[in-house]
Amino acid sequence: SQKIEQNSEALNIQEGKTATLTCNYTNYSPAYLQWYRQDPGRGPVFLLLIRENEKEKRKERLKVTFDTTLKQSLFHITASQPADSATYLCALPLSGGSYIPTFGRGTSLIVHP
Amino acid sequence: SAVISQKPSRDICQRGTSLTIQCQVDSQVTMMFWYRQQPGQSLTLIATANQGSEATYESGFVIDKFPISRPNLTFSTLTVSNMSPEDSSIYLCSAGVSNTEAFFGQGTRLTVV
Asked: Which of A17, A25, B9, B47 could connect to B55 by a Cys-Cys bridge, CB 3.0–4.6 Å?
């Protein structure tokens, strides 16, 4: 099975700056990688999916990169806002051929006004 | 997309008792899953709820402790049996509409005293 590593320390940034979160994985290379947002007391909400043959994916102020050589994904939020404050989870298929997501611990992002 | 309603949203239970958590999806879905999330930790998959057959449990989780039902394509229950304080956690129901995105309920915060 996959081991997924996300920075457990909270990321504090100033409003308007770009937040960059990291997701590293071991073992097999997944067919795709997902990012979710989780607010306190709520379930995760899907944000973006990037496939193994895609280097970069964008959605509004979000950008995700996927480097299968480094076994790493970077998640960027540009022009960050206090409303972006949340925990961001990286998820991969549970195992090769599976489509059940397995999650990293998540990184807490705090955007200060 | 899918909207998932989960109840109860929270409960405080006595050790040795059981609690059944219900999960209702607003549309028919192929896949339903149950996760557990302890404070500051990632989501851990308990089992895949299979319609019309026994659930598929992950390592460390057994049917006697976490019996799961899935009578149709929109509904599932998870029972936490013979509870102990170690079972205190957030339990999340999830449904997959496609094999690339998962939807979550708001979770059930369980405290065992």
From this structure: B47
